[in-house]
DNA sequence: AATGCGGGGTT
DNA sequence: AACCCAGCATT
């Protein structure tokens, strides 16, 4: 029977854990608090460049509480999530007035703006050495794997299970080192992509390790229904029946391929035609729209056909345009949905993607 | 319960 | 180019 979970984690941390991050030197509740706020959804390496500068300017809670908010935001700029800085400043003022400093209990801490359950636990455990639990991304990952907890942690039920486990496993003594150890375990061994289970102190009874499910846990956020974008593709024909093609930018969707000019809406078709060919067709004919699926989104294509009358079309503006006669060898690669559109403009939808015609 | 916040790293 | 990161507040 292996040792208690927390004992193994702590023993590992004493040998391999991180102990000299900026906020671990002189870990006062105030410094722990500031670091925890900076570290919300922000990686350690990023925060390292900000923490000491911030502490030099605002060495204690009173310095922060009495500073202008703009100065706080100034030292935050580049970190992102600027509401964190505003909340930090407000919380400093509230704590200063209401408690004469940072409170030292879970409820009062979590009542301050920007401090939730996990950050409050971190301040107590890391800053006061009191028994309290944290549940950040690292701990979620370690616990979900070790206990084999299925489901996305964003789901309330899963989150509740994880919190229950987190508290159940927090030792009465050394909660601070334990919290740090769990984060270090998640950050250095039990990483998202390539966990080093061979070095893990709790691999012996890890469900994910036993079942080879490290890659599946914790479950990722369910993918949203692939977003749908739409575009209007212009079939601009000249008097000879050639259609104008445009070479797409080298990178991005259909990079470097020859495709139809596009407009962001039917209303912009005329303006695009003027840009491209110097004039506009008398009328546009709307062909049946259809969908094309990419990995990350679906594109709803509205073909618009128009014939340019009068003398032969003006010469192409640059090498990124060509008048292409359907049936001739193409100037280069053509995206499949565009190719089918060129072959059978009126039937493109039917031949390309029958089920996607509607809506 | 779902979404916005945000710049940066990883894959 | 998603996806994620020492989460929390808001809706």
TrEMBL record:
Q: Which InterPro entries match?
A: A/G_AdeGlyc_MutY (IPR005760), DNA_glycosylase (IPR011257), Endonuclease-III-like_CS2 (IPR004036), HhH-GPD_domain (IPR003265), HhH_base_excis_C (IPR023170), HhH_motif (IPR000445), MIG/MutY (IPR044298), MutY_C (IPR029119)
What this chain does, per the record?
Adenine glycosylase active on G-A mispairs. MutY also corrects error-prone DNA synthesis past GO lesions which are due to the oxidatively damaged form of guanine: 7,8-dihydro-8-oxoguanine (8-oxo-dGTP).
Query: What species does this protein belong to?
Result: Acidihalobacter aeolianus
**Domain spans labelled HhH-GPD:** 38-188
Which molecular function term from Gene Ontology is one that the record holds? purine-specific mismatch base pair DNA N-glycosylase activity
Q: Which SMART domains match?
A: ENDO3c (SM00478)
Question: NCBIfam families of this UniProt entry?
Answer: mutY
Q: Which reaction does it catalyse?
A: Hydrolyzes free adenine bases from 7,8-dihydro-8-oxoguanine:adenine mismatched double-stranded DNA, leaving an apurinic site
Q: Record keywords: Oxidoreductase included?
A: no
The family annotation for this protein states: Belongs to the Nth/MutY family.
Q: Name one Pfam family in it.
A: HhH-GPD
Q: Which UniProt keywords apply?
A: 4Fe-4S, DNA damage, DNA repair, Glycosidase, Hydrolase, Iron, Iron-sulfur, Metal-binding
Q: What is its EC number?
A: 3.2.2.31
Tell me a GO biological process for this protein: base-excision repair
The cofactor required is: [4Fe-4S] cluster
Q: What class of enzyme is it?
A: hydrolase
UniProt protein name = Adenine DNA glycosylase
Please give the coiled-coil regions recorded for this protein: none
- How does the cofactor attach, per the note? Binds 1 [4Fe-4S] cluster.
């Amino acid at each position: 029977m292996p040792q208690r979970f927390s004992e193994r984690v702590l023993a590992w941390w004493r040998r391999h854990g991180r102990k000299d991050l900026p906020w671990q030197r002189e870990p006062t509740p105030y410094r722990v608090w500031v670091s925890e706020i900076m570290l919300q959804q922000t990686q350690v390496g990023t925060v390292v460049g900000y923490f000491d500068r911030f502490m030099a300017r605002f060495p204690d809670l009173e310095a922060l509480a009495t500073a202008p908010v703009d100065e706080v935001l100034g030292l935050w700029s580049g970190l992102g999530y600027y509401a964190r800085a505003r909340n930090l400043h407000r919380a400093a003022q509230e704590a200063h007035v209401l408690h004469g400093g940072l409170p030292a209990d879970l409820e009062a801490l979590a009542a301050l703006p920007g401090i939730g359950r996990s950050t409050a636990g971190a301040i107590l455990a890391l800053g006061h050495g009191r028994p309290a639990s944290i549940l950040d991304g690292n701990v979620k990952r370690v616990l979900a794997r070790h206990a084999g907890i299925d489901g996305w942690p964003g789901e309330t039920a899963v989150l509740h299970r994880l919190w229950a486990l987190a508290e159940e496993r927090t030792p009465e003594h050394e909660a601070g080192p334990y919290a740090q150890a769990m984060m270090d375990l998640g950050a250095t061994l039990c990483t998202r992509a390539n966990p080093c289970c061979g070095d893990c102190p709790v691999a012996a009874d890890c469900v994910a390790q036993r079942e080879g499910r490290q890659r599946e846990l914790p479950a990722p956020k369910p993918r949203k229904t692939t977003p749908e974008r739409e575009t209007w593709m212009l079939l601009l024909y000249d008097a000879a029946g050639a259609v104008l093609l445009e070479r797409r930018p080298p990178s991005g969707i259909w990079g470097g391929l020859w495709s139809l000019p596009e407009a962001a809406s039917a209303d912009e078709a005329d303006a695009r035609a003027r840009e491209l060919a110097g004039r506009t067709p008398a009328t546009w004919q709307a062909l049946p729209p259809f969908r094309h699926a990419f990995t990350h989104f679906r594109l709803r294509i509205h073909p618009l056909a128009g014939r340019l009358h009068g003398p032969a079309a003006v010469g192409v503006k640059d090498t990124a345009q060509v008048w292409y006669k359907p049936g001739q060898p193409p100037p280069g690669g053509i995206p499949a949905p565009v190719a089918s559109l060129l072959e059978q403009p009126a039937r493109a939808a039917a031949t390309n993607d029958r089920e996607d015609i509607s809506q």
